[in-house]
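Session log. Operator J.P. requested a structure for one protein chain; no other inputs attached. Running the standard single-chain path with token output.
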Amino acid sequence: MNIPQLLVHDHEDNVGVVVVEGLTAGTEMLCVVTNDNSDFRLLAKADIPIGHKVALRDLSEGDTVVKYGEDIGRMVGAAKKGEHVHTHNCKTKRW
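Structure written below.
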């Protein structure tokens, strides 16, 4: 049985959420799109804690971050596909 390591809500999202403990760099993650139950594979390029985000494509400083089909913030640093997206490179637009 394959257990997903990353969940993505919608195909328009540009980040997914790690849903397992101990995800390490070099893991070929099983990623599931919950909107239609499709799946794909993505290589984790860093150790990423559970609940944190992963870039689904290359993101540049200033890009809008989309999760659950919603604008959740902007990139304040770059992240390549498969890299960690968190407070070091992503901030809310609220302030």
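Operator note: The two ends are 43 Å apart (CA to CA).
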